[in-house]
Write a structure and sequence with these properties.
Layout lengths: L4 H8 L13 H4 L7 E13 L2 E12 L3 E5 L9 E6 L8 E11 L2 E6 L4 H11 L7
Antiparallel strand pairs: 1-2, 1-4, 2-3, 3-6, 4-5, 5-6
Amino acid sequence: MPVSKDHQSKKSAGVASPFAKPIQASADRRRRRFPRYRSDFPVAVTRLLESDYKRSEGQCRDLSIAGIGVLLAEELTMGAVLSLAFTLPGLTAGWEVRVVVRHRRGYHYGLEFLSLRSEQSEVLADYLTKLERVD
């Protein structure tokens, strides 16, 4: 069926098409694979800049079994692979893991863990049971 010019102009003006699928509520669209937990501890991010490494200090805001949300006053590129160093509160051993930038809102970055060893995953899973769930 041909589409009228009037229908095309309404579509381009931001009016929803009568044939469009209904938009799902944002809660349905934003389901996470893994729950996040509130956490607050210092982190350090190291990244390669041209011919030198740059280390930046930041703060963990939330944590999951698959990644970490950090507040960092730096401009990071989506998809960038970084080194992340931190110590979970209450533990003595520091961790240094590879992460990739998956999300950004202002200076809050969502970083996905790339290199957790199985024993680190077990320690992290146990640590998360003691935290308040964010979502």
